[in-house]
């Protein structure tokens, strides 16, 4: 389990590096701010094992209600049983069809903050079905609890003012628990 967690964290860090790199951020300083500092071992990753039993009337039930993740990114494994849907403006709820051997990467709220809105946190939900028990895992890469999360300096200038005030990883986590879908809006400048 520990080795799996370390490998997932490495994978997530790589993906975040590629995403921020695509915005022109390549320096170490741009990449390491969300890691635990000074050798502290605060939790920086969370893991959900979601279990959705067979449902006789799936149209009248919901596996996981619509939400955005608090994370920077979330890596989801659907184990070849669909159910995950993402909301797309204009199209509505779009199923994320499982692809054998592939993982799904969801953009979370913290990524929306640090990218100053360039990456949008995805609204998603999970449906149940009437034929098989669905399992899905979600691995969340968070910012460490004392890391300052704010739009990255290189993405901010007079033409692109910061959209969000700085928060610590811990503060945003608590805001999300309290305000749920209104958390991002509550730190909007
Ligand atoms: O079950 C799924 O496919 C998604 C799980 C999820 O969105 C979550 O745990 O936050
Ligand atoms: Fe989620």
TrEMBL record:
Keyword Nucleus included in the entry's annotation: no
Pfam families: 2OG-FeII_Oxy (PF03171)
Residues making up the signal peptide according to the UniProt record: none
Gene3D superfamilies: B-lactam Antibiotic, Isopenicillin N Synthase, Chain (2.60.120.330)
Domain Fe2OG dioxygenase intervals: 41-143
InterPro entries, A to Z: IPNS-like_FE2OG_OXY, IPNS-like_sf, Oxoglu/Fe-dep_dioxygenase_dom, Plant_2OG-oxidoreductases
Assigned keywords, A-Z: Iron, Metal-binding
Name of the protein in its database record: Fe2OG dioxygenase domain-containing protein
Species of origin: Hibiscus sabdariffa
